[in-house]
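Hi V.,

You were right to ask for the full record rather than a summary. Here it is.
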Amino acid sequence: MDGISTFSLVTAGLALFITIVSFLLFKRKRVFVPGVTLLIGLALFVLSFVIGGWEGMGLGVISLSLLIASFISLTLLMFYETYKRMKSTRPKE
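Predicted structure:
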């Protein structure tokens, strides 16, 4: 596998994992886990510039994958919450 396909698979796996953990652990505040992972990814991204060198680049790639995965999970959960809210407020015929 080349680099971009591995990056894509890791990002998709992380997004799936974050979404599943959000559904299983929290019923009301499902956006808590993606929000926390988004903040962790931002902190790791800033830390990668502080570390520098090859280690910093590796940490930067991992944190970028975590940022993208948490953003995807956050977007999916927000769409789900909006759909659920629209479905419950729609008048029944």
